[in-house]
Design brief:
seven-stranded mixed β-sheet; alpha+beta; Transcription Regulator spoIIAA; pyrophosphatase activity; Nudix hydrolase domain-containing protein; four-stranded mixed β-sheet; NUDIX_hydrolase-like_dom_sf; single chain; DUF4743
Length: about 290
């Protein structure tokens, strides 16, 4: 089997099945026709124009937009039209350092095909023979997404109002009981991107990656119940599971493949898919409205 199949599975977006989503005349996301029909019930907040879905032009400030969108989402969640809200806000932006257009519950980000960000950290240590061992999470059976699947050591969506590093410190404490001093040693090491069809819409995600070299005596312990266990695996076992099975949550193979490429565990001379992997992990996001 192929490592590339994981990248293909995370890049299934077809713009033919969507309408552009516009804010103040700028295309910022993608909306399915079925979602557009739901939003048409709220003409004070959304308009359908020229095969596009537009936030009402009378909503001119991020605060006004956020309040109006929140009211719509609360009504849609209450009548079962969308999944229950999660009470965690994402920032609607076209780039992370660009202006914040509005905030919305993270559940709804795929409904609008908005860019979303998250942080993931790989915890690693060296074996005496120079090889790598990686700490792998094992997701709890009651997780709404990918129950019982294998996971990265630390990961989470990026809430509005936090820096990536602050979010990493928060997730490290909640998910693994890692002390702040160790978590602060995390090294930023780039991003991966994908555009994936989901049940509710488009997941146009950017994962901001960190590496943490952990000591031999570090043992992660879940405090938020998201993981049932953690496993210390040789990198070779991780790669074999990635190549031959589907043991991991859908986007975690991308995180781990990127780690293995950056650390030379997968090299250009012995990995026939090397160039395709590198390119596939760092795709441009689909330009909304094109």
């Amino acid at each position: 089997m192929s490592y590339l199949r994981h990248i293909a599975a995370c890049n299934t977006f077809d713009p033919a099945g969507y309408r552009p989503f516009l804010v103040d005349g700028t295309a910022v996301g993608w909306v399915r026709p079925a979602t557009a029909r739901l939003l048409a019930r709220f003409p004070a907040t959304f308009r359908l124009e020229d095969q596009a879905v537009c936030l009402h032009p009378g909503l001119t400030s991020p605060t006004a937009r956020s309040a109006a969108v929140a009211d719509v989402l609360a009504e849609l969640a209450a009548d079962g039209s969308i999944e229950p809200l999660r009470d965690e806000l994402y920032a609607a932006k076209t780039t992370w350092h660009g202006p914040e257009l509005f905030r919305l519950d993270r559940t709804a980000a795929p409904l609008f095909g908005l860019r979303a960000w998250g942080v993931h950290a790989t915890g690693w240590l060296r074996r005496p023979d120079g090889g790598y061992r990686l700490w792998i999470g094992h997701r709890a059976p009651n997780k709404r997404v990918a129950p019982n699947k294998l996971d990265s050591l630390i990961g989470g969506g990026q809430p509005a109002g936090l820096t990536f590093r602050d979010n990493l410190l928060k997730e490290a404490a909640e998910e693994t009981s890692m002390d702040a001093a160790l978590a602060r040693t995390a090294v930023s090491c780039g991003t991966i991107t994908y555009a994936m069809e989901s049940e509710t819409g488009l997941k146009a995600d950017t994962l901001v990656l960190f590496d943490i070299a952990v000591p031999e005596d570090f043992t992660p312990r879940s405090t938020d119940g998201e993981h049932q266990a953690f496993h210390l695996m040789d990198a070779e076992e991780v790669l074999a599971r990635l190549r031959d099975g589907d043991d991991f949550k859908f986007n975690i193979p991308l995180v781990l493949l990127d780690f293995c490429i950056r650390h030379g565990i997968l090299g250009p001379d012995d990995t026939p898919e090397y160039e395709a992997l590198v390119t596939g992990l760092h795709r441009e996001h689909p330009a909304a409205g094109r």
